Amino acid sequence: MSTQLSTPINRSSAEALSRSKQEPQWLASLRAEAAELAETLAWPKPEKTRIERWSLGALGEYKAAEQLTRVEDLPADVQPYVPQDAGADFIVQRNSGIVFRQLSEQLKAQGVIFTDLETAAAEHPELVQPYLFSAVKKDEDKLNALHAALWNGGIFLYVPKNVDVELPVQALFLTDDPEATFAPHILIVAESNSRVTYVDRVISSRTGDAAPSIHHGAVEVIVKAGAQVRFASIHHMHPQVIDLSVRRSNVERDGRIEWIIGDLNDGNVLSDTTSSLDGAGSTSDVKVISIGASDQKMSLTTRAVHFGKNTDSLMVTRAVMKEQATAIINGITKIEKGATKANGVQTEKVLMLSPKARGDANPILLIDEDDVTAGHAASVGQVSPEQIHYLMSRGISKAQAERLIIYGFLAPVVSEIPIEAVRTQLRELLERKLLS
Amino acid sequence: MSTKFVIDGLKATIEDKEILKGINLEIKGGEIHAIMGPNGTGKSTLASALMGHPKYEVTGGTAELNGEDLLEMDVDERALAGVFLAMQYPSEISGVTNSDFLRSAINARREEGDEISLIKFIRQMEAKMKELDMNPEFAHRYLNEGFSGGEKKRNEILQMLMLDPKIVILDEIDSGLDIDALKIVAAGVNSMRSEDRGFLIITHYQRLLNYITPDYVHVMMQGRIVKSGGPELAARLENEGYDWVKEELGIVDETVGQA
Question: Which of A88, A218, B34, B137 is the S-S candidate for B214 at Cβ 3.0 to 4.6 Å?
């Protein structure tokens, strides 16, 4: 069923909402401008995916969130996603707002800021304003403009120059009220030669009813010279939640961004992860893993844009498709004129478990400079009967043989995930979704 | 109970073309049988049909291991019953390490809750790999991926050593092996000789039989066993080729249906 969105917000309502939350004037203006843009801009048009046919009207409305004193008060089915380490640096957003914040003394002492973006915009405007919507452009399309007008809660992570944050900082985004706008914005600023790992989970709680809703998220990662940021995100929401996730990183000289994305939702997904390698010697690495089931539709795009000389990008996407699921997987390597000695490598592989599933792998190389290297590999295949026979001839059951082959297909991505806890959780979710 | 493997009148087709035209063979524990013959006479089909490869359809006859009807079993059940086939072209499986694969295979033979301990498994695997002069890193490599022909064959023998089968079928295990590797593989097979294990070695060269002495040698042509004898038969084939057999039996074209 198609639902055409009449833009749910306009200039004055965006401004009014911003004022009611006592946001600073510059932010209220930003939202108002974005709301105006949203009225005229068009939806993004990812390859072979008509997102305007999705129920994009279900953005909900802002609802103030009730603070939690302890994470134990979150619903029981959410508890497995709460960090085991009670002292972890951890923030929880529930529906439209942040409900829990925990920052260790150590990080405070290092000058790290890890708080919700709404608070940061009020308390640290000099650090937030220059970067907010600098990587995600609010005038790019209707999706971004709406997000810029509507975003709520969110994260601001600021790592000062030369600071090395040892343990991963973590966040949890939970939707359990389909009527509430769920539009977190994550802004990470890593100053020169700093280092940080950020991990989040975006989930839905089953206590929510089955009304359709949307996760309308955006991520901006600003990597300054020589800094390194690892960003890991696992999305696991129920079939009625549409996941719209736009991620952008601008990387300066010798900086590095690593993305690890687990798109394990049960509903439709638009996932777009882009690294802009602006400075010479900057590098990016993105790994995306996904399982599609039922009649899910997914558009998974990874993109590396090379501006700087000697820049290096690696992109790997692996997807397993069950039942009637559809995934359109785009890998885009763009090398701009002047980005000499750039190197871009991408691989997209889809394993089909059902004749009714569909998986398209589209490698796209756009190269405007001669002195570069680039490579791509894409494949769509099925579990080979020859491989099943080989495993079974050693006494392994057919079900177990299939399982080994599927895990083997995903292993090159899963095994490289640098954070043990994320790896384990990803494995559990993979298992659950493959067996369901 | 001592092992007894009886193949009686086995017929098999591939894409409706009959390749096996009635194979009779009895292998007892402790015995080594060699099947020799030129290319295209149905030797590998026999191996694949016994293991239950989906490409082959058995159209007649029986194959029983210790009274159990193999042909009624799924492929994994045949393996659990004690059949092991070292394949001519082992599959490559990306992302599954050799050790994870072998551990799954061993655990398939054990009750749930009685899985082999990791330490014990690693110790066993390391010892067997050493016997086969395999680089220990092969335990962590993805199954057969990027292995050379000889490495794949050694890996097949490693599996044989680890899985303790009752009937071992070696399909052209000697192809692609240099003489040193051949000796190592032969030593592995010889170390497995025992009263309750039978072997069926398929080869078209006699050289493997210099290192593994068979009790019986069978010649296969046109999808049948046309001649049987002792080790001396293999030696004569090596010296004189197959022409004398064809002449003796009045066979012009020894191949079968695989144009």
Answer: B34
